[in-house]
Amino acid sequence: MIRFDFANIMQDRIGENGLTADDISAVAKLLPNAHSRFSGWRSSRDAIFYDIVFDDHLTIGIEEKAEEISENFDNLVVLGIGGSALGLRCAAQALLPPFWNIKTRNDRGGRPRLFVLDNIDPETFCSLTELIDPRRTCFTVISKSGKTTETAAQFFLVQKMLKEKSGGDWRNNLLIITDPSSGELRPLVEREKIPSFPLEPKLGGRFSFMSAVGLFPAACLGIDIRGLVEGAQAMARRCAEPDLDKNPAYALGAYHHRLDTKKGKRISVMFPYSDSLTLFSDWYAQLWAESLGKGGKGQTPVKALGATDQHSQVQLYMEGPADKVLTFIGVDEFRIPSSETRIEEVTESFGYLKGHDLGSIIRAEQMATAQALAKAGRPNLTVSLPRVDAHHMGELFMAYEIATALAGALYEINPFDQPGVELGKVLTREMLTKA
Ligand code: PA5
User: What is the pTM of this model?
Assistant: First the structure.
């Protein structure tokens, strides 16, 4: 079970920037209404992310198809953007060994390499298509709406390339994950008989990792998708009641909301202390920003990485504007035996390192930074994973999705839409039409 430590956001620990007993009672009073709003979103299926993990059909067909793709292809290229890419990128980084793509196929357990094209930079696109053999590549196109410019643009280029170079039926190198009825991709899937998984119509992109969007590509890579789902289920069960002491996701959402609206903490810094969790900050940044940034409300997410950013950003967090709340994500046990990185020989001035391994040093740095920030009166909280594995990642994703929905209820906004991105899309289309 992942653990949450909120002590360093409380006034008795950090002084005037922290939450008081009165703040906590005020938050507790708002909770029943926010909880019933969240329940309403579950009934209307806007918050279907919560219930979908209990659906027995969730993984049907996914593992079988993933085995087939994994056997037949050396490369899995995912075309998708935003919520259709970030969960997978985060899970792959967390759950695959580092340097996955440069390992041999044997060392990858017979699984494909992974490339996620979640931008339309022509240099990246062409460098990748030059590097891979299209005949040995499965392109998985993920677009909930089937209307996204960036994904469509890449898809058309890939389709042309496959028609010219796949050496067989180009459709066999494609798999499309999209809405079951609406959007531009579904008719194409039906017409061309392209392999496909449908998506729950009301499942929003940034809440969609626990669906074919994240689970299918993850399964192709040999990631334990059942572990992910079981972790998400465990967290959903743990966070069923509106009780701040028992429901850590509600506490996350509610305390962030309170720190923002009553203590001026307009910025939320996500600070994992493990390379495997770097992209969790990216996933969180999208979830927090796109869900909550509405009607002049919301908290600005910032990405950091420990221990690296102690030498880059921590000066600002200690002595800059007191407008931030920080979240440390720590790992109890790294997936390398401590004996492999134990330091035996040191110079005299580094004597304090002797006998320690890299895992214990990074953990000490995390705790020391949290303590230093608390002493400087800067609110921070810690989420601890016993280890980075599928179960705990499932817990983590679900905790933050629930926290986001709850915070949306407290801000009195709809966390499941993103009207603010529409105008840019309309203007892009206008510019390209005129050009
Ligand atoms: O969270 C969201 O809804 C967005 O970030 C979408 O995931 C993103 O815009 C991509 O949309 P689509 O999957 O429809 O191509």
Answer: 0.97
